Give the backbone structure.
Amino acid sequence: MTTAAPRSSVWRRPRTSLIVVTLAWVACALYLGLATRLPIVGDVDASTWAKWGHVVATMFLAALVYLMLVDAGRTRRDAAVITLVVAAGAGALLEVLQAIGGVRDPSIVDVLYDTLGAVVAVGLLSLPLLSLRAWSNVVTVAVVAMIVVVVPAALFATPGDETLACDLLRVPVEAAAASDPGATVPTPIARYDFDAGSGTVAADMSGAAPALDLQLSRAGVSWIEGGGPHFDGGVARSAESAASIAKATKRSGAITVEAWVRTDRLDQTGPARLVSISDGTQYHDVNVHLGQDADALSVRLRTSCGDFTAPTIPNVFTSRTTAEHVAVTFADGIERVYVGGKNVAAWRLEGRLAGWDPTFPLVVGNEATLDRPFDGDVFAVAIYHQALSGSAITGLARPPHP
């Protein structure tokens, strides 16, 4: 009587593999859930941590799934296909669940990062450098190491939930005196007067190097009589990233963004983007923006205390015939908002501008993803790496703009 040879197993104990997979998934979930709150390390900020988190976490999980499928008798080809489908499907499901739960907007980019992690894992495991048993040992050690590092970091080395939106402490609005010595306006690092009146390029008139010209889309943007683009679904955005602005604001620790705009609709929400340095609609996709949210001015400013501040100023957009001058400044922990040259709100918040993502473009009249269109006119936009004084902004809010 012959006895069948025992089936070779990648994992010495199937129960152990199940425990490792479960713990790995818990670690991955913790990392992806809390990565956006990890402290800034040099120029690597929360957005970058979250993107790499998708790649690395899914890579580990895909490796485990792949090895278990091969252990169950699947061919390497079948295991690879199933693993990639599962990784992409799980990533898509996670985004849907986050959207349903109101955590954030779904992101197809995150699904692509998940798939990329699975592709890397499957590609490495397909190399004939090590036996499957050796690979399983490597993956086990890597997963255990990730759990040992990630879980304590997630639990003890990240800020609490209350810092997600940066606590705002309202401070008294200071009236700007006409004799304010800060009334002189410094040279901006980006300025657009939109004087061309035609064409698909709005030149950066600041004189700063490198120039950050805006490219106007042919659809959804038209020129109004007297200069200035009218937006109706289109966008004006820099062809290059606004890295020069991000670096200048990091060095100075201060920023001013101002714009002259006129809305065609008083019910625009989203918020509709007036001017923004961003690359999407999620919290980690925004450095700074001014937007319209019905009659309110939406202001978003990203600092290192959390994701970003997101206050709104009501009763700003109340007329379709009158242009509004709007501005936001930040310096020394104080964020101020100006409407019509008047300081209408001010907050104290912790944090610095060190976490700005230098890869984001400068965008006017829409979001970079083209899903937050502004319906109206933009007459001028300017950005400074200083917080302008109240008197300086009052001067900027005077005509010639309508």
Observations:
- The CA atoms of residues 19 and 25 lie 10 Å apart.
- The helical segments are 14-34, 46-71, 76-100, 108-126, 132-156, 243-252, 390-396.
- Residues 4-14, 36-47, 157-164, 175-179 have pLDDT under 50 and may be disordered.
